Predict the 3D structure of the following.
Amino acid sequence: MRDIKEKIKSFMEKRSIILQLIGIAIIIGAFITMVVKNEDRFRHRTEICQAIIISSGNSYKGELTLDYEFRVGNKIYKGAAGPYTKIPSRNYSDFQGKSFSVIYEKNKPENSGLLLTPSNFERYNIPYPDSLKWIEKKYFMK
């Protein structure tokens, strides 16, 4: 009788561990699904257009920061990008007055991001364009 009680207790403990592992797997699966759906929703809610660099600055570490503006319809929106840790602020003339891609939310264009570095493009699963290879070569391949 004692042997049967121990077997039942052992079975219940194993069952409890299995149920906990299943619960954890379900939570992780739900989290991954939520992240993938949110990224997909963001991709469908975004547009890309051209922005012009209107000014530059530097972070407290001397890294380049850029201010840009872009037009959606008849309205001009402004944004800030950086700091770019691999681009010294003394190199602002490489970017000043030039046009670069910006990604923004269709329904809220003030939520935008400048697409300049390889990592900016990777974040949105967009191939890095040949037209920006000079940035990659000059600042990111050292």
In short: The CA atoms of residues 45 and 107 lie 8 Å apart. The mean pLDDT is 85.
